[in-house]
Structures are given as C-alpha cells and as structure tokens.
C-alpha cells in the first residue's frame, strides 16, 4: 500500500468511478462488490475476448472499452482494478498510474522485480493508491495460524504443500509459462504466507519440473522450495498442479518446540504428545468482497489496509530467488528490505 491523501470528493453522492481490466473469476467478484456498494460505480471493463467482455458488461451495466490502454486513459475513472493474466499486471499498473488513477491489482504486482519496484515508486510519486491484493492474509486459515503460533513455542520447521490434480490439464493461461510466470511467482501467496508469519529469509533453494506439451504450455508443474529464515527456522513449500498428480493435498504443518500445528483450509489441530486439540478455521468465502470494501474505506476515510507494498515486494523478491535457484541449481541469498 502506498500512503496517500484521500480525495475528499469521494462520497455516496459522488461515488468512486471504477474500471476493471479482466472478465474472469476475480473480475466478476470485484464487479459484484463494486456494483452492490453505493460508494462505487462500475463504469467500464476491458477484456481479452470481445464476446465475453460484451456479456460481462451487459451483466453489470458497464461500458466495454476497446483495450486496457484505452480504459486507463479515460477521464471518467478514479480507480482501475487489474484482474487479468499475470504477464500484463506490471504494464497495466504503470499505465494506470501514469494516467493518475488509483490502482488495485491481483497478485503478483509484476513478473519482474524491477518493474514492480518502479510501479511502487511511481505510485508514491503520483500520491495514488497502489494496493496489491493478498486475500490469503485475510482468510480464516492464515488468521488461525497466526493466532495459534504461540501455542507451540519456538518454531523450527514449517511445511506448506498445495497439490491440485487436473485431468485433463486445462489449456488456460495458468498453464502457460509466459502468462502465469514461474509457479512460485504466479502463486506468490504460498511464499507471502511464510514471510508474513516468520519474517526475513536469508536464502532459498528451489527445484522445479515442468511437463511441457508445447513450447509455452505444460500439462503439469512441480516446485519445491526450501527457505532459510534469519531466526533459524527452515520452511518448505510444495506447489504442484496438473495431470501427473492423483491425490490432492492442502496442508500447512508447523513444528514448534512445544507442539505441532496441522492445518487444512477447513480445520486445524494442535498436537502435543497424546493430546490433540481441534482448532477452528474461519471461512475462505467473501474475501475479494472484503478486500474491495477495505479499498473503498481507505479511499474514502483513510482506513489502513491489511498489507503493505513493501511486504508484497519482499515476497516477490523471495519468489524470484526461487526461480533463479531452480535454474542454477544452487542456494540463492535474499537481501532484506
């Protein structure tokens, strides 16, 4: 988040005028929230497919923009929400800021660390909001983990595995190298959870495998990254998806000197010898709506948001270190902000 002076002209009688780039799942949830909230109004949408964009605009009563470049240049928009393929995030954010718009972008801010740094600097220079969505930090799983950490004493090892079988693998942008990015960059929430919980990373070692079907398309990928933290903790993240997997997994395990925590998206357990205690995990539902509501609250009233641009950029640097490590097959040091 870039700190700005909120515009006093924003009010229910003068709602925040919103444009959205994208017509997929996240864009739909954003549009529903914007249109249902009297403090905002969805004005225009830009999408990749003209037919899908037209249908999207008809559903939400918005105007279809010719392109995202034309959308960000409009004088009748205050806020641009970027909900499209990862590859284009950085370019759209930069163009929106250059046209004096506030910006919300789904993670990652960019596939390139330098481009992300420039966007954050530009937002500060322009005194505009740049908010990078990290709804995983708002969700019940993450909140339950943070609340439960003191129960297990000093944490020395953590493992977070998310495996998603797909039969057949979809021929979508999320399985394209150029559009999704390196898996732990495109799915940066896996690393953002760790850095939010445990702080500074000193080094990363990562292995990555891809089962390519075309030069820019794969049917499966697997990434395994080991993070060493300044506090001595070692963490491991496993991210896999596609046709080669047959058993799903979504488990976050934390080993502390006084106990072990085991979490799934639905439930948690505290294990201390023979004693097992169930831990409640809140809902994952409604997080895009909550994120959008918090953005409107910030613009109208200056209410603080839940994540900083510095923390998001740091997670991106860790993800980039993982990418480099997978290529050179060596540990890569990570510098702290």
Care to give the gist of this entry?
The protein is of the alpha/beta class and about 325 residues long. The chain is about 35% helix and about 30% strand.
Summarize the main sheet: 9 strands, mixed
Give the fraction of residues assigned to helices.
Answer: 25-40%
What is the molecular shape? Answer: globular
The H/E string reads EHEHEHEHEHEHEHHHEEEEEEEHHE
Would you kindly provide a written description of the structure presented here, covering whatever features stand out?
With 337 residues, the chain is of the alpha/beta class. Helix content is 34%, strand content 30%. It has a 9-stranded mixed beta sheet. The chain has a 6-stranded parallel beta sheet with strand order 3-2-1-4-5-6, with helices on both faces. Helix 1 packs across helix 10 (287-301), helix 5 (113-126) packs antiparallel against helix 11 and helix 9 crosses helix 11. The longest helix is centred in the last third of the chain and has 20 residues, at 309-328. The chain is globular. The relative contact order is 0.15.
Brief descriptors of the model:
15 strands; nine-stranded mixed β-sheet; six-stranded parallel β-sheet; alpha/beta; single chain; 337 residues
Topology:
Blueprint: E1 16-21, H1 25-36, E2 40-46, H2 50-60, E3 63-64, H3 68-72, E4 79-82, H4 89-98, E5 102-106, H5 113-126, E6 130-133, H6 140-148, E7 155-165, H7 177-180, H8 183-186, H9 189-198, E8 201-214, E9 217-229, E10 234-242, E11 249-256, E12 259-263, E13 267-272, E14 275-280, H10 287-301, H11 309-328, E15 332-333
Parallel strand pairs: 1-2, 1-4, 2-3, 4-5, 5-6, 7-10
Antiparallel strand pairs: 7-11, 8-9, 8-15, 9-10, 11-12, 12-13, 13-14
Helix pairs in contact: 1-10, 4-5, 5-11, 9-11
